[in-house]
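Hi support team,

I submitted a single chain yesterday and got back a structure, but I'm not sure I'm reading the token output correctly. Could someone confirm the output below corresponds to the sequence I sent? I've pasted both exactly as they appear in my results page.

Thanks,
R.
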Amino acid sequence: QVQLVESGGGLVQPGGSLRLSCTASGSIFNFNVMGWYSQAPGKQREWVASISSGGTTNYADSVKGRFTISRDNAKNTVYLQMNSLKPEDTAVYFCKCKDYWGQGTQVTVSS
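Hi R., thanks for writing in. Yes, this is the structure output for that exact sequence:
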């Protein structure tokens, strides 16, 4: 059974940083694109960033230059380093691999 488990969310002040982690069980991790998505209250889930098995990264325009996605294939883990956080980054963040989603981790940016 495939499971994706996120961690690392929390409350941070504007301008602060957080690092999210997502660890995958099973054998799906190594050869697939991993993605991070966000869902703010009352809004649709949106793509934030993705990374291929070879390390190619892509970012939504809203997070370019502030967020960095990376992966450790030996640990079956993908990370999202979030810097210069803004109140509009407040959302539940989900990781995704193929058709599988994690349960999400809450990120709140507020003073």
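A quick pointer for reading it: The longest strand covers residues 18-24. Let us know if anything else looks off.

Best,
Support desk
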